[in-house]
Amino acid sequence: MSRDDSAGTKLESALGALDPETRTALERLAENDPALLRETLSDLGYLDAESESVETVENREAVELTPVQRRLGELLSAMGNPRSTTDIIELLGDEHPSFFDEYQSAKHRPWMSNQLNALVDAGELGRYRDGRTVLYTPSIADAIRHWALNNDYFVSDLTVRHVGRITSDTNMPRFAVREGLEELTE
After folding, report:
1. What is the band of 52 on the pLDDT scale with cuts at 50, 70, 90?
2. Is the full-model pTM beyond 0.90?
C-alpha cells in the first residue's frame, strides 16, 4: 500500500467517524470553496499559515470608496481614541464643520453608520464592540488591541488561530484582521 493509499484510508476512516451532517458540510466546503477550507484549517492551526499559496489566501477585493467615504476616512485617520458613531458625528461637527456643509446627511446617525461600515469593509477603519456599543478606530491593529482587552487576551498571545474569532466578533474583513494582527505581532 502506497503512502497516498494509506493517507486516503485514514481520511475515509476519519470522515466516517463524523456525523452525516458534518460530513456532508465538510464535503460541500471542500468541493465549493477549498480556499476557505484551507484558510480555516490554517486559522485553527492544522496548517502552517506561512505555507499558504497566493490562490488560497482570501482575495482582498478592491472596494471602491465613494468620494465622501474617502474624505471621511482622511478626516478620521487622526481621530485618536476609539469613538462611537455619535462621537464621530460630534467630532466632525467640532473639528470639521465644513464636512456637514458639504454633506448634510452626515449629521444623521444611520447615514454615518453606513459610511463608517463601508470604510471598515474596505479595511480603512477598525471596529469592535465594547458591550453594546460599536466603536471605530483609525487602525485595524488598534481595534484588535481593544478587542483583545475586552475579551481577556494579551495581545502577545494572539496568533493566526484568532483571526476567525476576531473577524466574527468585529465584522471586520478577514484580510484586514490578518494584516492588523501581523502589525501587532511584528
Report:
1. very low
2. no
CATH fold, domain 67-185, is: Arc Repressor Mutant, subunit A (1.10.10)
37 vs 31: CA distance, rounded Å: 10
Sole residue written with cell 484568532 = 162
What Rg do the C-alpha atoms of the chain give, in angstroms? 21
